[in-house]
Amino acid sequence: MRSFRFLRLLAATTLALLAGHAAANEAVIRKNLAERLPSLPRIDEVRATPMPGLFEVRIGTDLLYTDARGDYLIQGVLIDTRARVNLTEERLDKLTAIAFDELPLKDAFTVVRGNGQRKLAVFADPNCGFCKRFERDLAKLDNVTIHTFLYPVLGKDSEAKSRAIWCAKDRAKAWDDWMQRGVQPPAADARCDTSALERNLAFGQKYRITGTPTTFLANGQRIPGAVGLERLEPLLAQAAGAAK
């Protein structure tokens, strides 16, 4: 019994020493980087990585790496070669995830197919070529609920088309007609309330949605770009399982 208590005490002491050491490293890194690189934005977080002696420096959702004293700064990708895992990408996925129930779905239009059990939300620009390709893949999905956020970031024409689609009697049809068949949506009525588009842009800026299409799954995972069905299908299944 005494040896068990001793081991517990030893483990607690070791953890306390490691925590103190990590805090000391963080303070040194923050101090040295701020003094040596005054143009560097404010550091949000410093944390140890699985690689001994290497620390992650997080600025917003930008990740840099440094040694224990901040003498060297590395911009790049950290890969665990044994597990064959991109640790940088894995970390970014967690940092940029958005809880699905935090999405302002009132500012999107929704399509339900089949039982609608699989859920995703897409931020898309009507003049985005990758978005059009992605829409062709999304059209092949069944048993899905798709919330589309009009996200006009590619200029004035994108804004005009987004207003026209948002103000259409059938938004989903107007969207599909334009994205898949090239049918121009009728011009928006000047009396139509398009403030949802402004809110979408503000939401995207807040959550760093920098490109289109950007998709969010039911488990909060963010998927940038026009991924194909061969990648999307297993991600949807995984997200549906996690959401249960």
TrEMBL record:
UniProt keyword terms in alphabetical order: Disulfide bond, Periplasm, Redox-active center, Signal
Domain Thioredoxin-like fold: 113-236
One GO cellular component term noted in the UniProt record for this chain: periplasmic space
Classification via PANTHER family: THIOL:DISULFIDE INTERCHANGE PROTEIN DSBC, THIOL:DISULFIDE INTERCHANGE PROTEIN DSBC-RELATED
Subcellular location(s) of the protein: Periplasm
InterPro entries: DiS-bond_Isoase_DsbC/G, DiS-bond_isomerase_DsbC/G_N, DiS-bond_isomerase_DsbC/G_N_sf, Thiol:disulfide_interchange, Thioredoxin-like_fold, Thioredoxin-like_sf
Main location: periplasm
Name of the molecule in the record: Thiol:disulfide interchange protein
Family recorded in the similarity comment: Belongs to the thioredoxin family. DsbC subfamily.
Keyword Zinc-finger: no
UniProt function note: Required for disulfide bond formation in some periplasmic proteins. Acts by transferring its disulfide bond to other proteins and is reduced in the process.
Domain Disulphide bond isomerase DsbC/G N-terminal: 21-89
Coiled coil: none
Gene3D superfamilies from the UniProt entry: Disulphide bond isomerase, DsbC/G, N-terminal, Glutaredoxin
Signal peptide: 1-24
